[in-house]
Amino acid sequence: MKTDIEIARAACKRPIAEIAARLGLTPDRILPYGHDKAKITHDALAALPERQGRLILVTAINPTPAGEGKTTTTVGLGDALNRIGHQATICIREASLGPNFGMKGGAAGGGMAQIVPMEDMNLHFTGDFHAITSAHNLLSAMIDNHIYWGNDLGFDTRRIAWRRVVDMNDRALRDIAVGLGGVANGFTRQTGFDITVASEVMAILCLATDLADLQDRLGRITIGYTRDRAPINARDLKADGAMTVLLRDALQPNLVQTLENNPALVHGGPFANIAHGCNSVIATRTALRLSDYVVTEAGFGADLGAEKFLDIKCRISGLAPSAVVVVATVRALKMNGGVGRPDLGAENVAAVRDGCANLGRHIENMQGYGLPVVVAINHFTADTDAEIAAVQDYCAMRGVPAVVSRHWAEGGAGAEELARAVVAAADSPADFRLLYPDDMPLTAKIETIATRIYRAARVEFAPGVQAQLQAWQDAGYGDLPVCIAKTQYSFSTDPNLRGAPEGHVISVREVRLSAGAGFVVAICGEIMTMPGLPRTPAAETIRLNDLGLIEGLF
């Protein structure tokens, strides 16, 4: 079998103007980046029709080393919906360089269910992440420059809340000192780096509705405090205008295509374990106005990505899914049932049944939002009939269809049954409701997510965290949703605790205010906002071959 990159390289791509035409976009409404990718212009966004398609959210069980294939399923489902006669557009996030050179090796789908150009999407693409990095670090530079030239705003240098970012996994940058080397280099202080996808600028870009809203949100970023604990924001520093200039083109959604030449919008990329994990509101709204169905995904398992998609993105934007697809693989269910990687290829129906507890928890959580659920069994060749039947029987007892999908091997043709099940689910009654109301106190919002989604017994707050939350509550930020930063591998904060644990404790060690994005981040357990590279990073095998072609992106 060919590798993903070999399949993508052999794709018969259509000129991007043809893909745009399928969405009713004329050549003057797109800004081409070569022959196979383009941005949809601000003028085009302002002239979108009032049509409103149906939104399908693809999520998954908790990720395991065995793999779930959420993006692959998203692409395959979108292709299948087009095959059965619907105009469908796929909306996913852009890939971060850090994970691509760390563990993932690629993030454009897989097999016969991919978005192309695959190499571009996994590397620099249209430069959006570079623009976000530059805008973020411009603000960082302006903070230190302001302090150097007299500090008229009265920054307390012990309480500067704005760090720097880089789009790479680099643990050495988590905590650093700046201003070393003497008076000419400014005032010495401790700070650090986060990965670009954890930047509030990334979150803002993905939640903004237009350029004016973008600048307003950038201006609201809280960057530090005075000695009297009064907040200082980016607008006080007069940084919001220049940041908006750097992000002007990046705000325009990126149009590409699947292997089957169906339209896909790839835009934005906040992580789901340390940010809100969804593609941009602008891209989703654009696709909904140009399509019958829009298939989008939320990062990692439903406990992180889908919860944030629903409670943050949908709350802020007014979007509402018509159905949810929960992706599972027999292999991952066996791992959740206690089977180690060396034994995943052997039939083990009992382990599948045990692992279904994790799937069941995610089904219950999604149904708790009042949404119809379909389970997609992402098929592997080693799956046995008995193992698949165990999953389908488990789901049937819960009144949820579980459909075997072979999109990885067969593309859209292998996901037609899944597409029909999704259309039927989207046609069924839905009563979408959020997990908590806006006026619930911030502390209670964190506890609600922990107890109702994670099934924790309680939340433990580090010293000072509750006082900080109360201070933000008193300052008028109490209506904001909360974004839990937590390991993606478990419902708990222990990445090794698989299945469906209950009664554990969620420890909140730090909270951060994202006033511009419009949410409060609660950092739990050992989660890091700057990941490190693994012992053997994917970068070691990514190279150019003798023909000048990229190898090692999977």
The residue fraction in helices comes out at 25-40%
Please state the overall shape, judged from the principal axes of the Cα atoms.
globular
**Helical/strand content category:** alpha/beta
Kindly state the number of beta strands.
25
Arithmetic mean of pLDDT: 95
Molecular structure report:
A hairpin with a 4-residue loop joins strand 12 (222-226) and strand 13. The model has no long low-confidence stretch (mean pLDDT 95). 35% of the residues lie in helices and 19% in strands. Strands 1, 2, 3, 4, 5, 6, 14, 15, 16, 17, 18 and 19 form a twelve-stranded mixed beta sheet that branches. The chain has 19 helices and 25 strands. It has 554 residues and is α/β, with parallel strands linked by helices. Helix 7 (128-148) runs antiparallel to helix 10 and helix 14 (349-367) packs parallel to helix 15.
Keywords:
single chain; four-stranded mixed β-sheet; alpha/beta; globular; 35% helix; 554 residues
Brief sketch in words of this structure:
This protein is an alpha/beta fold and 554 residues long.
Topology:
Layout: H1 4-9, H2 16-22, E1 30-32, E2 38-40, H3 42-46, E3 54-60, H4 70-83, E4 88-92, H5 97-102, E5 109-110, E6 113-116, H6 118-122, H7 128-148, E7 155-160, E8 164-166, E9 176-178, E10 189-191, E11 193-195, H8 200-207, H9 211-219, E12 222-226, E13 231-233, H10 240-247, E14 254-258, E15 263-266, H11 281-290, E16 293-297, H12 302-317, E17 323-328, H13 330-336, H14 349-367, E18 373-378, H15 385-396, E19 402-405, H16 407-410, H17 416-427, H18 442-453, E20 458-461, H19 465-477, E21 482-485, E22 505-514, E23 519-524, E24 543-544, E25 550-551
Parallel strand pairs: 3-16, 3-17, 4-15, 4-16, 8-11, 17-18, 18-19, 20-22, 21-23
Antiparallel strand pairs: 1-2, 2-14, 5-6, 6-14, 7-12, 9-10, 12-13, 14-15, 22-23, 24-25
